[in-house]
Amino acid sequence: MASMDECPGAMHCTICLDSEGEVVQRGCCCRGDAGAVHLACLIESAIHSSESRGDWSGWVQCATCHSQLGGHTQFALAEAMSARVDASEAEADDHGDVNRMYAMGLLAGAHYVLGRYSEAERLQTELLAMQVERFGNDHLDTLVTRTDLSTTYFSQGRHDECFETEREILRVTQQALPADDPETITSEENLACSLDEVGRSAESFELMSHALSARKRVQGPEHVDTLNTAYNLITVHMSQRAYATAEAELVALRPTIQRVCGSNHMLSIAVASKLGQTLLYQGRLREAEGILRPALTSLTAVLPPTHSRIVATKVRLGAVLSKLNQHDEAEAMLRSATAQYQATLGAENKYTIAADSILGDALIRRGKVDEGTPMLRTAHARHVESLGSEHWATLQSADLLNAWPRHHLDGAVGDL
Q1: Worst-scoring range by mean pLDDT, 42-56, 82-96, 274-288, 341-355?
Q2: Is 229 within 8 Å of 207 (Cβ atoms)?
Q3: CA separation, residue 368 to residues 293, 362, 363, 373 (Å)
Q4: More confident residue, 365 or 54
Q5: Which end of the chain is more exposed for a tag (fewer CB within 10 A), N or C?
Q6: Number of neighbours of residue 246 by Cβ within 10 angstroms
Q7: C-alpha span between 249 and 386 (Å, rounded)
Q8: What is the DSSP letter of 62?
Q9: Alpha carbon distance 292, 305 (integer Å)
Q10: How far is Cα 332 from Cα 334, in angstroms, rounded to an integer?
């Protein structure tokens, strides 16, 4: 199966104009031949461009659409750049040090995109120490890396740690940069995401709305960053259980993202997966399945199987299949997702616990009441203990538990 970074068929590399040889790849917002390249040609072109300019900025940016290359293309370029910097005779001077730090940041970002969070965190931590020593705490490059590291914490489920970091980043960014600087807006958006994760959705909505308005004004309504912020605002609607509102906004946003980014762009697939989730919560199961299956196929073609986007989509699709009485596939998918969350996020993370509750519900639906009931009840109790009774994750596990009549569950072995 061709990955999303690959261009199947007789497509021509935009650099050498040849269709022969290695697989032609793309990773930006260009589509068709406009986004097709041989990876070797892309690396050679990037080397020539950086050496002619005298710096390495723009190494992974498409010269046509100006978006950042992504996925395996980004990772291959970042590795090539790191090797080039390591081999450079000028690496010991000031310019070489800056290039080395830039290469580390790109490589860390590429690891992050592919879901290799531990490796991304290692590089970001090392890079941050170098930048603090060289530039100080308030330098823009230091702030960017601190933001990237916080995002890595976020993706690992370390939301409390991330929340405190994001508050400090926003404070420093607001002092160091203009209010309408994209980095200031990013700091607002990241803090809004963290507020949502810790259950403060009303504050998150206000801050995210402000960030979206600023993005539209500064970067334009169809900039990729603006579209991503619009998606994050819809995620807050989901946390507030405004599923019909979230669905309407996703349906309105989806065509623009597909037109600007392409249907195989990660943001396009994320929107599809989130739309499937809204349909699940509204009981429109066949529609949800029709959206989630292709989304999962697209994600598994380009990302490692343990990537958080894949696992989240598997949980959503597994829940749908369970309610459609496709029990064997649902149970296998949910057991796999639960194990992957436990391995990557830990057993006490709220997403792991949520997957446990959905698996428990699925087991009850297929008649495995003795196994499913303790799992469902324990998951809800753990959510209440760790998050409180009003957190959106707790309310979702309560919905699953309360859907079953008590007499249906009371005979289960291991009842709490």
Answers
A1: 82-96
A2: no
A3: 25, 9, 5, 8
A4: 365
A5: N
A6: 24
A7: 31
A8: -
A9: 16
A10: 6
CA distance 153 to 160: 9
The tokens describing 133, both together, are: 């020593």
CA distance 112 to 148: 9
Residue with tokens 């690496």: 91
Task: Identify whether the C-beta of residue 377 lies closer than 8 Å to the C-beta of residue 356.
Answer: no
pTM of the model: 0.75
Supply φ then ψ for residue 68, to 5 degrees.
Answer: -80, 135
Helix (H, G, I), strand (E, B) or coil at 139: coil
pLDDT above 90: residue 214? yes
Q: Which two tokens stand for residue 156?
A: 């690992």
Three-state secondary structure call for residue 307: coil
Helix segments in 262-326, DSSP class H: 266-281, 285-302, 308-323
Going by the DSSP 8-state scheme, the letter that residue 403 receives in this structure is: T
Q: What is the pLDDT of residues 256-273, one digit of tens each?
A: 999 988 887 889 999 999
Angle at 245 between CA 242 and CA 248, to 5 degrees: 150
Residue matched to tokens 């807050």: 236
Cα dihedral across residues 341, 343, 344, 347: positive or negative? positive
Q: Tell me if 141 sits within 8 A of 177, measured CB to CB.
A: no
Q: How far apart are CA 201 and CA 278, in angstroms?
A: 17
Provide the 8-state DSSP code for 25: E
Find the mean pLDDT for residues 192-201: 90
